[in-house]
Amino acid sequence: MHRRLFPRTLALVALVAAAATAGAPTATAESPTPAATRLNATIDAILADSRLAGAQASVVVKDATTGETVYHRNGDRRLVPASNTKLLTSAAALELLGPGHRFSTEVRTSGARRAGLVSGNLYLRGGGDPTMLAADYDALAAQVAEAGVRVVTGNLVADDTRYDSTRLGPDWTWDDEPYYYAAQVSALTVAPDTDYDAGTVIVHAAPGATAGARPVVTTTPPTRYLKIDNRAETVAGGATSISFERAHGSNTVVVTGQIALGTAPESDWVSVWEPTGYAADVFRSALRRHGVRVLGRTVLGQPTPEGAAEVGRHRSMPLAELMVPFLKLSNNGHAEVLTKEIGRVLSGAGTWSAGLTAISEYVADAGMDTGTLRQRDGSGLSRRNLIPADEFVDLLTAVRDEPWFGTWYAALPVAGEADRFVGGTLRSRMRGTPAAGNVHAKTGSLTGVSGLSGYVTDADGRVLAFSILLNNYLASSVKTLEDQIAIALASYTARSVTGARVAPPAAPDAPRVPEGLECAWVKPNAC
């Protein structure tokens, strides 16, 4: 933990405190100012919305500098936080691994080597990198060829032993398993594009040449690891209704429905069964392209022997950069990889248990009362995660003193900012309001669960830390209620009161997203 306040930071804190208090009426918890009373009444009115009838709502707002409570309702109540859980995981990763932490993927050889012949195995050793693309495996294969390797008499061994072999969170629901936002976790994997959804493939279906023909199905990246069961049909006209479903426990993707002649291809992101084999298939194809023949078979899950000679290496972007796709797009795979990486680095065990223990110890040091919460995974997919809003706000307040805080704050989604890698899951929300370009916060969504936790600067220039957790509602979405609260906070001033009428602020409609999903989990991106 780092608790140093440098001179510039001290000056900023002083300026913010002065702005927040100059000309403002004083108040106590027993005697709030009229402005504070109005703000509380406004938030109360928002939470009285009929969409929350019978639901649970918890909202906590504090001055991030002084710790003064601005609003509090049910802050000690344990609620399911969904992807707000990533606040704990990301903060712990930056502290325990460091902003400069990188993942390495290596290629090594065992046995005798003479000229271009290796009398042994070729090892592809995974280091957990969730950003490995097919192009990176191609570059690794080029390094092997440049090292003079032409023929390997043994096997291609895919070494994923940096982490354990548990691929899915123990509490994740089975019906999420085929979808890319619940992809299997491995230390050796592939992402299909620069959203870096590791362990997934993009499947495309284009119209066939004539009506009645099967659509043309391809994948990104090209791979033989998937089997395509194409039952779809090209039609002369009408609506396109293509569906891609991977059968449980297999890599068979069933394509059904219809696609009209002359229309653009349809695409979807599909998780693979056993991403280690997927990575090995992509790498083996790259080796062939570069003139490297492996005579043996592909073997999964065996460790690289000590002393094996390195013939290729790829290093990931630093963790500080990875925070952007991780938090902006609410990438579940990144959260789980970082959890296992924390466990591996700190205790030598690349497991959920080891990682979560280390995360718990860090957030306890940061001021969270870990006796009041439960964290079961890194991403928030588990419904057994239970975290009070009070504890989120305590974390949000504490980490502002950390040397990596600027990196973390910038990586949070920003309300109303159209660029996906700035606005992230908030880019279509709160546009044209005082919260736009102001609110930096983590979203969270599961069926019947919504959350928004982060920072907002009020009209007096005061930085507020807030957490909004909503559970057990039956409406399709309550995002606009979160937005109304954030807008009210961004508009709040302690200096004056403009009338006694209490009316929740208007919030633009949030994007239409299937119930229980983050907008960034809907491909193509829905936010």
Describe it.
InterPro entries: Beta-lactam/transpept-like (IPR012338), Peptidase_S13 (IPR000667), TAT_signal (IPR006311). GO terms for molecular function: serine-type carboxypeptidase activity. Keywords: Carboxypeptidase, Hydrolase, Protease, Signal. By secondary structure, the protein is an alpha/beta fold. It has three domains: 34-100 and 320-521, Beta-lactamase, CATH 3.40.710.10; 104-166 and 276-315, D-tyrosyl-trna(Tyr) Deacylase, Chain: A; 200-271, no CATH class. Helix content is 27%, strand content 21%. The chain is built from twelve helices and 24 strands. It has helices spanning 7-21, 34-47, 86-96, 134-146, 275-289, 319-328, 332-347, 352-365, 389-398, 405-411, 420-423, 479-491, and strands at 56-63, 69-73, 78-79, 104-109, 112-114, 117-119, 122-125, 151-152, 156-159, 200-206, 216-220, 227-230, 233-235, 243-246, 252-256, 258-260, 266-271, 293-294, 298-300, 309-315, 387-388, 440-446, 449-457, 463-471. A five-stranded antiparallel sheet has the order 2-1-24-23-22, with helices on both faces. A five-stranded mixed sheet has the order 19-9-7-4-20, covered by helices on one side. A hairpin with a 2-residue loop joins strand 22 and strand 23. Helix 2 packs antiparallel against helix 12, helix 3 (86-96) runs antiparallel to helix 6 (319-328) and helix 6 (319-328) packs parallel to helix 10. The radius of gyration is 25 Å and the shape is globular.
